[in-house]
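Batch manifest, entry 17 of 40.
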Amino acid sequence: MMYSSRIKWFTEISYDCRGTEIAEAALVLPLVFMLLLGIIWFGRAFNIYSTLSHAAREGARVAAVPTCATCVPFGTPCYWSSSTFPCDRTIDETVTDALKASRVDPTQIFAYTPNPSPVACPGLDPAAACSVTSNKITICRGMRINSAVSNLPECGTIVSFAYPYQFYFPFTSLNHQRIGLHAAAEMRMEY
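Output type: structure tokens
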């Protein structure tokens, strides 16, 4: 008799479905929340990368076009190495303004030179040169920009920098992982 009551009790418990929804939710909800957090953090990383690329393109565009003395909206224009191209300060301000417009902190950027290193175009006046601004933006002028695509090299400007991004993705190996998002843009110089 004792044995049959235990079997009956065990059978009732095994067919009882109370609490299964809670157990299923306890298993599924953490995975759903991790997926949502991943979408949010990877989306933010992509947004910052897009902003960095835009800022580098704007800097390269400004660096590649000569400045006329009457076109400068604020004060006296500064020129790069006795040419009509804008100085490093102007390019630096263009990049940092583009970053600030998207609420990306320009004080966190760090210097980055594209790999492979830029190759100088021969016979330019002023001579090709790379410099790093006070905000750690690398500006390379008079560099070959399409050597991998064409046998006819074009000379241009390359603006590059990097920005740190830290993931907050709990319970994974990406939590507090810090990566550098690199931005580089090149533009043909208009002589």
